[in-house]
């Protein structure tokens, strides 16, 4: 993974726009993350 990609993921997690868990999407599918 490139440095900028790692930094972006860290930033997204830190500010709360990328969350991990069990989420039900509008389509009804389950997703392990929400962005």
Automatic annotation (TrEMBL):
Keywords from the UniProt entry: Glycosyltransferase, Transferase
A single GO molecular function term of this UniProt record: orotate phosphoribosyltransferase activity
Biological processes, Gene Ontology terms: 'de novo' pyrimidine nucleobase biosynthetic process; pyrimidine nucleotide biosynthetic process; pyrimidine ribonucleoside biosynthetic process
GO terms for cellular component: cytoplasm
EC number: 2.4.2.10
UniProt keyword Transmembrane helix, yes or no: no
InterPro entries: PRTase-like (IPR029057)
Gene3D superfamilies linked: 3.40.50.2020
SUPFAM superfamilies: PRTase-like
PANTHER family according to UniProt: OROTATE PHOSPHORIBOSYLTRANSFERASE 1-RELATED
Protein name: Orotate phosphoribosyltransferase
Organism: hydrothermal vent metagenome
């Amino acid at each position: 993974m490139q440095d900028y990609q790692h930094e972006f993921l860290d930033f997204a997690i830190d500010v709360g726009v990328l969350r991990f868990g069990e989420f039900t999407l509008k389509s009804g599918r389950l997703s392990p993350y929400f962005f």
